[in-house]
Design brief:
Elements (H helix, E strand, L loop, with lengths): L9 E4 L2 E8 L4 E5 L4 E4 L4 E5 L16 H8 L3 E2 L1 H9 L4 H13 L3 E3 L4 E3 L2 H29 L8 H11 L7 H5 L6 H11 L9 H5 L19 E2 L5 E5 L8 E6 L2 E7 L10 H9 L3 E3 L2 E3 L4 H7 L7 E10 L5 E11 L1 E5 H5 L7 H17 L9 E6 L5 E6 L3 H23 L6 E3 L12 H9 L5 E3 L23 H15 L6 H35 L5 E10 L2 E6 L4 E6 L9 E10 L4 E6 L1
Parallel strand pairs: 9-16, 10-17
Antiparallel strand pairs: 1-2, 1-5, 2-3, 3-4, 6-8, 7-8, 11-12, 12-15, 13-14, 15-16, 18-19, 20-21, 22-23, 22-25, 23-24, 25-26
Length: 606
C-alpha cells in the first residue's frame, strides 16, 4: 500500500537508487539518480532505507569494515540493516547503498534486502576464478575480433574459427561468433570469411559435410566368399571396360556365338539382407564419387575381393542372353559363375572396335539402341567432363568424348536391366524397378540448344515396387541391376535374384520398399554432394587459371542474358549482352572473376 512509503524514503526501482518525492493514494512519485522523475505503483519499488534521503549526494562511500564483516559472517545469512550495523556501526542511506551494491556485485554477498547470504571463502575464490576466466575470454575475443578486421588469424583463435567452420560445413546453423562479428550466419558467408582469413584455402571442399553424407570409408569385417557351385566361364573373353583409373569395375561383357554374357560382381553372395555390411551400405546408398577420391558404399576389402579383374579370376553373377539382329533378346539365364576378366579403358576399347568380340558387341548395342529409340527413347547429347585431383593436388578437367565403346557398354547394361525386370515380373520377385515419366513436351532437333531444351523437359527417374515405363530410356520396364558394388538398390536386386535361384525365402514387397525409401533418400544426397563438389573444384580450377579463355555455345536466352555452354569445363554461364546472340552461335569467352563460396564464375565475351 502507498501509505507504507513516505517522502524522502530511499528505495530501489528496477535495481536503481531512487528517492520518494510524493506519496499519493495509488501512485508514488520518485526521482532517480539521473534526475528522471517517475510515477510508480507501490509494488514497483522496494524500501532500502526509510531515510530521510534528501539528496543523492548523501550516498557517498561510508567508512567501515565490510570485508571484515564478510570474514566474520562467512556462510551465514543476515539482514541488510544488521550487516550495516556490524560493518559500519550504524545504518544510513549511504551504508544501505554501499551494502546493496556489494550484494548486487555478487562476489561476497547475494540475496535480498531481508536476507543476505554471506559467501564462504571457497565460493568467493571460485567466483574470482570465474571472473578472471571471463575477463580473459573477453580479452581473447577483442584480440580475435581485431585480427579479423585486419584479415588475419593466430593459432590461439582456433576455437572461434572452428565454430565458423562448423557453420561452413553445415554442422550447425547458428554461431555466436558470427553474430558477435556482425556477420551473416550462412554457410557461404562462413566459407568466405575462412578464406579471407586464410584459415581455409581453396582445397577445402565443404559440400559433402554440408549435405550430410558420410565421408569416412566403411570399415567392417567381411565374411568369406561362401563355397558353392559356380559355372566355369573362364574360357570366355570377359571385358571390363571402364574409365581409366577406375578402382571398382563391377561389370564385364562376353560374346559367345550369338549369346551375350553380362558378368556382374557377385556382391550378394557375401552381403546378405540385414547383415552389418548391408545396413552400412543402405545408410550410404551409393558410392560417393568426388574429384578428390571415392568414398565407397562397401568396405574396400570387399571391393578388392569382388571387383572384376582385380584378381586372376573373379566370382560373378552372370546374365546370359540370346540377342537377335533386331536388338531383341530371349532365353535369359542367371548363374553364379567364375570369370577371368581383362580390364581396359574406353579409349583402349575404341581402338579395337573392328576386332572380335568388340565388333559383335558393338553391332548388338547399336541394334538395341535403335530399338529403344523407335520405342520413344529420349536422346540428349551434351558435352560431359571428368573432374579429378591428381597426385599433386592439381585440378584436371577432361572432356569425355562420345565414344562408341561407351555406347557398347551402356546398351549392354540397359539390356540386362530390361531382362532382369522381365524376369522378376514373370517369377513374381519383388525388386526395385526404375521408372521415368514422359517429358512434358517434345523438343525436335539435335543442336546444343535443342538438347539443352530437351533436358529441361525431363523429370528424374524414380525407384518403386511396381514395373512401369522408363520414358527416357524407351523401355517398358527396367531395373538397375549392374552396379551392386556402387549402388545399394542394385545390390537389393541381386539379393532377391540370388535367394530366388537358391530356392530360399525372398524379401516381400514391403521389405523391398523400406530399402528403396532409405537408399533413395540418401543416394539423392550423394548425387547432390557430387554436383556441388564438381562445381567447387571447377571454381578452384578457374581461380588457379585467372587468364582462362575458351569457346562457348549459346544455348538459351534469359532476358538480356545469354546462357552459354562451356564444353571444355562441362558447365554453363550467364553473360549479359546488349543484343541477344543467335542460339547455337559459337562465342569466345574470357574469365572475369570467381566467387568460390558461391561456386560462381563470371565471364565476358571477347
Amino acid at each position: 500500500m502507498s501509505e507504507n512509503f513516505q517522502t524522502d524514503n530511499f528505495v530501489l526501482y528496477k535495481n536503481q537508487a531512487a528517492r520518494v518525492t510524493n506519496v499519493a493514494a495509488k501512485k508514488i512519485n520518485i526521482v532517480l539518480q539521473d534526475g528522471t522523475a517517475v510515477s510508480v505503483r507501490p509494488k514497483d519499488i522496494e524500501l532500502l532505507h526509510p531515510g530521510p534521503l534528501r539528496s543523492f549526494g548523501e550516498l557517498g562511500k561510508p567508512q567501515g569494515e565490510l570485508l571484515t564483516a564478510w570474514e566474520l559472517l562467512a556462510g551465514e545469512t543476515i539482514s541488510l540493516e544488521e550487516l550495516s550495523e556490524l560493518a559500519y556501526d550504524y545504518f544510513t542511506p549511504a551504508t544501505a547503498w554501499a551494502i546493496w551494491q556489494a550484494v548486487n556485485d555478487g562476489l561476497h554477498f547475494s540475496g535480498t534486502i531481508e536476507e543476505i547470504a554471506v559467501h564462504t571463502a571457497e565460493q568467493v575464490a571460485a567466483e574470482k576464478e570465474a571472473r578472471a576466466a571471463k575477463a580473459a575470454e573477453a580479452a581473447a575475443w577483442e584480440t580475435f575480433a581485431g585480427r579479423v578486421q585486419q584479415g588475419k588469424y593466430a593459432a590461439e583463435d582456433g576455437r572461434f574459427l572452428q565454430e565458423i567452420a562448423a557453420v561452413a560445413m553445415g554442422q550447425q546453423e547458428r554461431s555466436q561468433v558470427l553474430r558477435n562479428l556482425n556477420q551473416s550466419e550462412t554457410p557461404e558467408n562462413a566459407h568466405a570469411l575462412l578464406l579471407k582469413l586464410g584459415y581455409w584455402d581453396e582445397s577445402v571442399n565443404p559440400y559433402p559435410s554440408r549435405i550430410g553424407v558420410t565421408t569416412s570409408q566403411p570399415n567392417l569385417p567381411i565374411p568369406d566368399l561362401p563355397a558353392e557351385e559356380r559355372r566355369d566361364l573362364t574360357h570366355l573373353t570377359a571385358l571390363a571396360i571402364d574409365d581409366a583409373g577406375s578402382s571398382d569395375p563391377d561389370d564385364a561383357l562376353s560374346w559367345d556365338n550369338g549369346r551375350l554374357w553380362v558378368h556382374i560382381a557377385d556382391v550378394a553372395a557375401v552381403v546378405t539382407p540385414g547383415s552389418a555390411i548391408d545396413l552400412e551400405a543402405r545408410a550410404r546408398g551409393a558410392n560417393l564419387y568426388l574429384p578428390e577420391g571415392t568414398i565407397y558404399m562397401l568396405p574396400e576389402a570387399l571391393t578388392d575381393l569382388l571387383a572384376l579383374g582385380r584378381r586372376d579370376s573373379s566370382p560373378a553373377l552372370s546374365f546370359g542372353l540370346d540377342v537377335l539382329p533386331d536388338g531383341t533378346f530371349t532365353n535369359l539365364e542367371i548363374v553364379p559363375s567364375i570369370v577371368r576378366v581383362t580390364r581396359l579403358s574406353y579409349d583402349e576399347a575404341q581402338t579395337r572396335l573392328d576386332e572380335s568380340p568388340f565388333r559383335e558387341l558393338l553391332a548388338i548395342a547399336q541394334a538395341y539402341e535403335q530399338r529403344r529409340v523407335a520405342n520413344g527413347a529420349v536422346q540428349i547429347d551434351l558435352p560431359e567432363v571428368k573432374i579429378r585431383l591428381n597426385d599433386e593436388g592439381e585440378v584436371e578437367i577432361r572432356p569425355l568424348p562420345a565414344l562408341q565403346s561407351r555406347d557398347l557398354v551402356r546398351e549392354a547394361m540397359l539390356m540386362t536391366g530390361e531382362a532382369v525386370a522381365q524376369f522378376a515380373q514373370q517369377h513374381h520377385i519383388p525388386i526395385p524397378y526404375t521408372t521415368q515419366d514422359a517429358p512434358n513436351e517434345v523438343v525436335e532437333g539435335s543442336t546444343p540448344s535443342a538438347n539443352f531444351a530437351r533436358r529441361k523437359t525431363m523429370s528424374g527417374s524414380q525407384p518403386g515396387s511396381t514395373p512401369g515405363r522408363h520414358a527416357g530410356l524407351g523401355l517398358d520396364q527396367y531395373a538397375q541391376a549392374t552396379s551392386p558394388l556402387r549402388r545399394y538398390l542394385d545390390l537389393v536386386v541381386h539379393q532377391q535374384l540370388r535367394a530366388f535361384l537358391r530356392g530360399e525365402p525372398i524379401l516381400d514387397e514391403q521389405a523391398v520398399m523400406e530399402r528403396v525409401g532409405a537408399a533413395y533418400a540418401v543416394s539423392g544426397d550423394v548425387r547432390y554432394a557430387e554436383r556441388l563438389s564438381n562445381g567447387h573444384w571447377t571454381a578452384v580450377y578457374l581461380l588457379r587459371h585467372p587468364g582462362w579463355t575458351g569457346e562457348g555455345i549459346v544455348i538459351d536466352q534469359r532476358g538480356k542474358r545469354d546462357l552459354v555452354l562451356l564444353p571444355t569445363l562441362g558447365t554453363e554461364t550467364s553473360i549479359y549482352q546488349k543484343e541477344p546472340t543467335p542460339l547455337d552461335s559459337t562465342v569466345q569467352v574470357k574469365l572475369q572473376s570467381v566467387d568460390l563460396p558461391q561456386r560462381e564464375a563470371h565471364f565476358r565475351t571477347l
